[in-house]
Amino acid sequence: MDSISQIIAHFALDLVSVSVLTFAVYYPRHRRRDLIPGYLALNVSLFALAAALGRSGDRGGIALGFGLIGVLSIVGLRSESMQSEEVAYYFTTLVLGLICGLPNVGFMLTVMLCALPLAVVYVAGHPRLFARTLRALVTVDEAVTEPEAIESFVRERLGEPLSWKIQEVDYGRDLTVVDVRYRRARTVRGARTRRLATIGRQRRPRESPGETVRSQ
Asked: What is the DSSP letter of 106?
């Protein structure tokens, strides 16, 4: 009974931890509902795997090691199609499930170990941290490779370029695709706000369907 109560307590802690990560940190920042089932399923599955293999003796530790290699390989293969933030959340859900599922670990120590990755993800991915440093995939309507031309293009339209890498140069369609890291300038933001306000003032209100225009 003590083992069952320990598993229940650790599973409750795991559910609380992954819920905080998914619903309080990840979803309010990224708004991707399609990844939530994957995070929850990965976390609970790893908890069950670690809890079962960790209590099966010496062979369980070997099986747990091979299982972790397989899970990490799957996440590594999918990381090419995911953003860096999403890979970080995947690994955090993995770590939370393993920490809570490992046997012979005190409950308070498990709480502290779960709070550590949650705190790191919360602080490292906070929107206010380096808020002016952004990333964009820019398509230039000209096949150019000169650094001065690309930096001038980015500086004029986005802000101060920090680093950039040419992804594609198409001489047939006469375009260049550039992956840019840049710092948003306040003047660019202000100009964009004024431009949007000007467009809004130029729009005329639409006539209602039942409204008619009478000539005097």
From this structure: -
**3-class state of residue 138 by DSSP:** strand
Per-residue pLDDT tens digits for 129-148: 777 788 888 888 888 888 88
User: Which of these, 169, 160, 157, lies nearest to 195 by C-alpha position?
Assistant: 157
Report residue 1 as tokens: 């009974």
How far apart CA 121 and CA 134 sit, in angstroms, is 19
* 91 burial level (CB within 10 Å; 0-12, 13-18, 19+): middle
Residue 98 exposed, middle or buried by CB count within 10 Å (0-12, 13-18, 19+): buried
pLDDT in tens, 97-111: 989 988 788 899 999
Reduce the DSSP state of residue 75 to 3 states and report it. helix
